[in-house]
Write a structure and sequence with these properties.
The structure is a homodimer. By secondary structure, the first copy, chain A, is mainly alpha-helical. In chain A, 50% of the residues lie in helices and 10% in strands. The structure holds a DNA duplex. Chains A, B: It comes from Jiulongibacter sediminis.
DNA sequence: AGGCTAAGTTAGTTGTCCTAATCAGTTAAT
DNA sequence: ATTAACTGATTAGGACAACTAACTTAGCCT
């Protein structure tokens, strides 16, 4: 049998493999925490994720095509979920002004209530992270954000909203800089999901 | 609307929140990479995960009850998946000697072939991690393993196979030590999934 | 022996997620 | 300006994941 990061007997030899295995465990945490909230609210994981995403992102990102890209599923999958959420009266459709085939999704009051109840599903994880010192958190974040940037560069993550891929981002003499805020960026200022993101040419 | 790690406008203020958001992105990578392999092999993500797990773990962990705990799903879910995998002739059932209600699952030759083809699904992620220096990887792993240990202590992750929770593990004067290997453990020696793991009393 | 617990299955339901096909509107190109 | 190509969204059909509830059978315990 080939080597693999999931082979405990081989895993030990490779540090990067052990990091992958650690990430896998943390992924499982997301799954578990999300399901917990899902059961409480009578919704499915993807339904909750959609509601949370819609709550915190502008209308230009809240249509079927973009949501499909965002969650790495096909459009019919999003279309199905939206049908259900509409039926449950948690979201509303607003026709697009520029394209009559398209529409934007917004939350209803009931939808906002659900978001308030569920958006904190990652809190138990956050609590453990807070146990690390600020210095540790800073280096951890710096390493994670560099991994994520690479993943985006390599098309493994399709959605781009980090500073590194933004048109307002520049890096001179190792110093990251945001041309929109017109200020240098420390490691901890780098954003994973920047509201002002605009893709670079 | 309440604060949330998924709110890009608020996210910036909290370092731990940004780390959570980063973990969320990396979780998505697992999902994407696994689906890719799934489509190629004509199996579903959970089916592949089951096969990989069975390939690298002893018979005592390869029964319905444990697999359900391992993947944080109910027994019927595992039972269903096993039915399908058996039907596809990728696994075999071996009756348990100690308990006639139970059985152990093993891979068929066809199952092993699939594992060889799919177990490397995390490779693109591993490749990015390898771009970090060994020092960076060491501190990253140390921080990840401490987070994971805390998550297990707090029952958020139900399955325990890290050194920290093992009966053979001890820590004297900040020096981790394995009483089975009878040797001190450096940060990079800590195991996330140790084959010799035995729960401490 | 009787009652509790545990291993696994079955039945029934809801919803995810896919592919393929369809419809309608937008854009580009001759 | 009209056709061709593309794109946004939906529908249809199917495999399967995930749940709960109820059941069967076997082990355990006092």
């Amino acid at each position: 049998m080939k080597n693999s990061v999931f082979n405990p007997s081989q895993q030990q030899k490779s540090l990067s493999g052990k990091i992958v295995a650690s990430f896998e465990r943390i992924s499982e945490v997301f799954k578990v925490l999300l399901w917990e909230k899902a059961k409480l609210s009578g919704l499915s994981p993807i339904q909750i994720q959609l509601l949370i995403f819609i709550a915190y992102h502008g209308p230009e990102l809240c249509n079927v095509s973009h949501l499909a890209k965002e969650f790495n599923v096909t459009k019919p999958t999003i279309s199905d979920a939206i049908k259900i959420l509409t039926h449950k009266a948690l979201i509303e459709k607003f026709p697009s002004v520029s394209d009559s085939r398209s529409y934007t999704i917004g939350l209803t009051e009931a939808g906002k209530t659900i978001v308030n109840e569920t958006a904190g599903f990652t809190q138990p994880l956050e609590k453990q992270i807070e146990k690390l010192s600020i210095t540790e958190q800073t280096t951890l974040f710096s390493q994670l954000s560099s991994i994520i940037f690479e993943l985006q560069q390599n098309q493994i993550l399709s959605v781009q909203r980090t500073c590194y891929g933004c048109r307002y981002f520049s890096q001179q003499n190792e110093q990251p800089f945001c041309k929109l805020l017109n200020s240098p960026l420390a490691q901890q200022d780098i954003r994973i999901d920047c509201p002002e993101f605009e893709a670079s040419a």
